[in-house]
Amino acid sequence: MTFLENYVFYVGAFGLVLIGLFTILVKRNLIKAIIGLAILDTGVNLFLISVGYLARGTAPIYTRAEQGAQPMVDPVPQALVLTAIVIGVAVLALALALAIRLYRHYGTLDLRKITEQRW
Amino acid sequence: MVNPVLLIVVPLGFAFLIPILSLLSKKAAKYIPPIPLCFNIVVSLLLLPRALENPVVVSIGGWQPAFSINLVAGPVGILLSAVVAFVGLLVSIYAVDYIREGATDRYHMLFLLLLTGATGVVLTGDIFNLFVFFEILCISSYALVAYAGDKAGIESAVKYLIQGAVGSSLLLIGIGLLYGLFGTLNMADIAKALQSPSSLPVFVPMALIISGLGVEAAIFPLNGWLPDAHSSAPSPVSAILSGIAIEVGLYAIARVVFTIFGLSIDSTSNFLMFLAVLGILTLLVGEMCALGQNNIKRMLAYSSIGQMGLILFALAMASSYAVVGGLFQLVSHTLAKALLFLTVGYMTYRTHSLDVSALAGIGKRMPITSLAFTIGAFSLIGLPPFAGFPSKLLIVRAALATKECLFFVLIGGALLGTVIEAAYFFRIVQVLYFKDGNTNIARKQVPAVALIPIVIFVILIVGIGIYPKFITGLLSSAAAELLNRVDYIRNVLG
Amino acid sequence: MKPQLILLIAFGGAFLTYIFGKISSKLRDGAAVAISLALVAIFACLYGRPLQESFYWGFLGLNLSLRLDALSWFFAIAIVSLGALSIIFSLRYMRDRERTDFYYSMMLMVNAAMLGIVLSNDLISFYIFWEMMSWCTFLLISYNQHRALDAGMKYIIMSMIGSVAMLAGILSLYVSFDTLLIPQIASSLATASPGYVLFVLVIFGIAFGIKNAIMPLHTWLPDSYAEAPSPFTAVLSGMLTRMGVYGLLLITYVIGGMIGGTGLGSNVSKFNYVLAWLGALTIVVPTFIAMLQNDAKQLLAWHGIGQGGYMVLGIGFGVATANSLALAGGIFHTLNHAIYIVLLFMSVAAVQYRTGGVRDLNSLGGLVARMPVAFVGALLGISGLIGLPLTNGFVSKWMIYKALIIEGHPFLAFAALIGTWGTILSVYKFLHNMYLGQLPEKYKHLEKSPFSMQLPIAVLSSAVVLFGILPGIPLRVINKICTWLGFSSLDVTIWGFTSETGTLNTINLLAAIVVVSAVVWVLFHRAAKSVVVAQDDNYAAGAYVPRDKYHYTAGFYEPLFTMLRPYLRDVVDEFYTALAGAVRKSCGAVRRIYTGDVGNYVTYIILFLASLILVQLRWRPW
Questions:
Q1: So what's the ipTM on this one?
Q2: From the centroid of its chain, how far is CA B17?
Q3: A106 vs chain C: nearest CA distance in angstroms?
């Protein structure tokens, strides 16, 4: 049980990453693949957060540092995740926009049929 | 006192200026990109003397290096940022005429963003910052690939995006693991703390980072997007992607491998050998795929894969000669491949076809362009007296100097790749000059604006080929910086 | 005069010619001729004046330097003279063609690159000029379009294989000895291990063997010779291909201390024996293949390969047994062959020019009446090729035979002799089918060749005879080369030379031949009872044959054809073609990696990562 307690966030994060990758690998539909990307992103973000997570830590705000002896969580990963989320959103938005255009060209979103560019 | 931050801030500022400016005048947008890029060249040159003495380290926000985001403008960084700005400048001049349709202001904005990202990657000293700049580079290149909005472009952009996003996720996981291990994101700080790269906790992030960056750097099994994206994008974009984007990816790999993980030829780890094998594999696969291609841009794209393989091989040998050769090859490939894509851009524009056979007789219709193409192709093959020759020579020499059987075999593979490369490039040269083709194409030169960059590229390729000393001094200090981990740590952390 | 200045004139001339061409074609022609003649004059003045100079330090810290010694002078003078003659020949030949600016500047560029090759004193400038020569040649071979494209591809691919091998060899020498200056390498290599020496020999042997078209590496040559523009074929066959010989001589110099030795040097001997045997093979097979050709240029091209065999045989054998007679014969044969093969290609080109590009031996004939100068050129050319006494080919072949016999290698000598017999058969066909026999109706009104074609033919014809009667002129220079290479000196006189087993004296030969022919002439003139019969009178036992329907020249040697053809397939070429096909097929297969399905691509990424980690987990190799 201690393993799960200590690593539950990591397990969850990598679970999400694997689900995301699996979706991208297996799903034919572009929209589903994009959903896979979103899950992958989320997994990565969760992972980053859990790197800095401290059980029972408080928010890392310096002005309040003297108030309690409670440990603070690492603020850096949270900053990273904010950036990563923004990037992820940008990628997803672009992906969806491209998906619309792709559908107009091919009339399908089946990635296995969209193989004009090959060899 | 010039600050390296300007190299990133100015193009970024101009990039966002473009959409605002285009509200006033639709036509103004295309004249914007050359300004910040000229500025970048000047700044790089001003920084160069100082950077050659000692890398210029700038901490943003006034924090101490280990805690703040910092830029390290050493010889490599300045060299590459100058190359990025220079090639970017020439391509943006070319694009003034070439990009006519669509939302041109957005094209120019994305173009500047891409170059900002590339400059950021080569200058940054912070691994998360590296990721961010990488994403700027990647996202703008996804959008640029799709710029034309045609079937091929959209399809390639989607595929590129999916692979690129998976790659960046892997990169980010790797960075997260490193942070978890060492509690810092500063590359020098991580390097200082990291002892042996082969212990498993360190190896896993390294594998993740190399796979993540490898997608962008077009290393063999990770480069499925490249032939599609480079061949479907508008030609100036292909030139930048082939000439800048993948090289920057490769630089990032070299930086991570040499500086952070401290792999070197003396270390017991033979991961570098694996990378060398991978490089030759990439080279052979790229060249073999290019051989049978009938789509000229796709052929050039595969040839880029091949060249990346050669550079990776050279860098992975990690001796100072080899790295000089690798960086030299990087520069000469950038010049040659950008030149090829630019010339092919107007050729295919005239013939309305990407087919090699459609280029028949172009040599008579567009003599200067064809000559430029020929020179670029000869340089890529590595024929004297063009820029590709001294770089290939350095690489072969470095491989033979290792006195190891493996490297002899590998360089044999590389030379075989050269022969294949010669086969398909010479075929195109024949098609250009010695095949009678469509006589309906008017005998018309490329517009003068587009001709300027082409001619400058040609002059540079011939100039560097005849007088390589022009850049070897800078390259050898760049190679020394890339290989010398201890100095890097000391310079950054003081 | 500094050697770099000469190269500057040569390369600068090539560029100037192109620029002048944009102004006026007359100016361009004049410039091309002037530059090529100026080079001839320069080298003529430089006779016997050795030069050596470093010209450029900027190339990656390598010391590039140039030299002029006996060997390079010998080749340089041949290059510039033949180059000038073929430029003069081109004046009319190329007049109405397209892209002549390109043609002339490339011709000058090829000559300049060849000069660079023979003048280089270090291997890296050697390589640079070598490669420039290769790609210029490629462009010139492809000039004629259509079939020439395939010929050009074949040439450049084989040439690239040779040059990457050479690059590896050169850089390996550089890494081993930290110098690329040829004299320094020569002194360093003396202490190298025998295995390494063998490696150097083999790798350079491949590079030069491809250029010189030694037997299993010869396949680029026939098509390239046949399809290139004829004046360039002359340059290609005369000197460019023989850069391979120059290369072999250079290796000979580099391994100078080990020649003919045992022990440490025995690898050198073995290698050169192999080379000599390959040379013998190269003499025999292509000569008989030449007999089967119906295309005048193909026929000459196969002879070009065969004659290259003599050079390789002479040099290889000379080095293997430290015999300066054979070596000198090989070198001399290079010059002689250059003279007569250029002459022959020019006479073919003269015919092509008048007949509108016809070079099919079955459709020509009787042109002696129309083009006497070209005929004389062809006649003297084939005499030289066969090696008739009093022509230049005789002397060099005689030297090689003699050396082979003295050293006791009857089989090699036999191969060389067989080659000569085959040559006689096939060049007779060449001469007969082109110039003798019946003149086809459509060529009845051909004009004779223009002066600019007659002049080079006349010059070369007289050179064939001159060097046949006075071989001492070139042999003096060759003797210097031999001593420079570390061989014993020959006793050369202006009429020939003496060696321990006998003397060659062409003046005696001349006298003998004059006397004998006088006797024969007198006998026949006095004793003849013959009647003059029109050539087509005696055919078909009096049956009527329409005068213009019958053609003597078709199907020459047909019975011999049917007998020999099965044995004379170019198996090597077929093998290479199959190999190229296989490579192309496998390249096509590799392309299938890029399936176009993005799922596959992501799988590659994941698998790559997974296998990296798995391998490290399981075996910990990194």
A1: 0.93
A2: 26
A3: 15
